[in-house]
Design a protein that fits this description.
Four Helix Bundle (Hemerythrin (Met), subunit A), 3 domains, Gyrase A, domain 2
């Protein structure tokens, strides 16, 4: 349902459950007054007259009966120096669900409306404190799986990505002004010098866009994790490798083929990079229907995963299944792992790209982790402060790049400036979608609906 921008909103901003402290938050023009109706200070201090960014001690009470609901600290923050640029109050209660719920209900009964998901951050965006890219990074901060992912989100929240997008957008605006000058003054014509200048400027912009887009693969990994499938025939040590990487026994390990029948998933922090590692059923010809389904899922994951760890048993000669899996693997996203290097080598594979390990003895794992990190970054060091992590941003950058390439092509064949201007305007709109300057209302609704209530 559409939000009323002028209503005062309230919500519990801390996770559901028991904790030392819980916070109920208000924002809006009546926030101070509504909070004042339910707050009592032993020293008779008033929320309305308290200077901004001060904390008051007291109690939340039932206004009609004077019953004390909770002992609290109240943070008073007055516009415009707040998260939403509106008057805000945060009531720090005891962290149980009952006191938090009772405090929230009192605020709602005294004039506040229940906040919708992401409504506090949406107000920060609508009131101009942050742009849309920064607003989206708030959710990335909350959902960050590793320190590197958190650093990437913090960089975007601080405006790192927005500064780059704004700089590119300014360059496109300058290019648009040059083209539209020729539309306003057609008698001047488009001289060769100006054509060369516009082409050079467009090439500089497209180069910057390509660099940003190229970071998105690593950015997606920082945000969602590197989907890594451990593949191989039964009893080569797939589950042992999973346990070795996790440094605890997550998967059952036996000498009985087919022990792992379903995909086991775990998240692993690989040097600051989140890794979603999946142990799969051993691939072989089977008649058991449950194991058949496990094998089918294993083969599907081999095609869908970002990275495949193809595990071979170095203590045995290669099987036909091993050879089939090697042929099926794609070198760019497969690391071949020769397990059981603590035993005599009978596999007779001498490819230098193969990583030799012993999952049992935990040897060779450091070399394997280095190869995994190289696979995630393409072998090039990437700073978490300069990556694009959001799929929506990637699509907008790709639309911008397409429009600019169309503009360059039009320049080369002397397309009339009116048509060139259309391409540049499309590029500006696409960049504006990232910052929120040209983002449709339904897209905004979809973005903020993914936030939790209270943020």
């Amino acid at each position: 349902m559409p939000m009323e921008e002028h209503r005062t909103i309230a919500a519990i901003s801390t996770p559901v459950g028991q904790g030392g402290i819980g916070i109920v938050r208000l924002s809006g023009r009546d926030a101070l007054g509504i909070a004042g109706k339910v707050f009592r200070s032993p020293k008779k201090k008033s929320i309305a007259t308290t200077p901004s960014h001060r904390i008051l001690y007291g109690h939340v009470v039932e206004p009609g009966t004077g019953e004390i609901v909770d002992e609290v600290l109240v943070s008073v923050m007055k516009a415009p120096g707040t998260y939403t640029r509106e008057d805000m109050v945060e009531i720090h209660c005891h962290g149980g669900p009952v006191p938090l719920r009772r405090v929230l209900e009192l605020l709602l009964h005294n004039g506040a409306g229940l906040a919708e998901p992401g409504e506090f951050t949406r107000r920060a965006f609508l009131n101009g404190r942050i742009d849309l890219a920064q607003a989206e990074s708030v959710l990335d901060m909350i959902n960050a799986l590793t320190v590197q992912g958190q650093k990437a989100a913090m960089s975007q929240l601080s405006g790192g990505l927005s500064e780059k997008i704004t700089a590119v957008r300014e360059q496109v605006i300058e290019l648009t002004a040059m083209v539209e000058a020729h539309i306003d003054f057609p008698d001047e014509g488009m001289e060769t010098l100006s054509l060369e200048d516009m082409l050079r400027r467009a090439e500089v912009i497209t180069g910057k866009l390509k660099k940003l887009i190229d970071t998105s693969s690593y950015g997606r990994i920082l945000r969602d994790g590197l989907r890594t499938a451990i593949i191989g025939r039964p009893n080569v040590g797939k589950s042992s490798l999973l346990n070795a990487l996790l440094e605890h026994d997550r998967a059952i390990v036996t000498e009985v083929p087919g022990t792992t029948r379903d995909v086991i998933e775990e998240y692993l922090n690989m040097g600051g990079m989140p890794m979603k590692i999946m142990d799969t059923a051993g691939i072989r010809e089977v008649r058991d229907m449950a194991e058949q389904e496990g094998v089918r899922r294993s083969l599907r994951l081999m095609d869908e995963a970002d990275l495949v760890l193809l595990v071979l048993d170095g203590s045995e000669p290669l099987h036909d299944t091993d050879r089939q899996l090697i042929e099926k693997s794609v070198p760019r996203n497969t690391i071949t792992v020769m397990n059981k290097c603590d035993l005599p080598d009978r596999a007779a594979l001498h490819d230098k790209s193969i990583v030799k390990i012993s999952a049992k003895d935990r040897t060779g794992l450091d070399a394997l982790k280095e190869r995994i990190a190289d696979a995630a970054t393409g072998g090039h060091p990437v700073s978490a402060h300069s990556v694009v992590t959001n799929t929506r941003h990637v699509h907008a950058l790709e639309k911008t790049l397409h429009s600019l390439e169309s503009f360059q092509e039009g320049l080369s064949v002397n397309t009339p400036p009116e048509f060139l201007s259309v391409d540049l305007r499309a590029a500006l709109d696409a960049l504006g979608e990232i910052l929120g300057a040209t983002t449709p209302e339904d897209v905004l609704n979809r973005i903020f609906s993914t936030f939790c209530i209270g943020k």
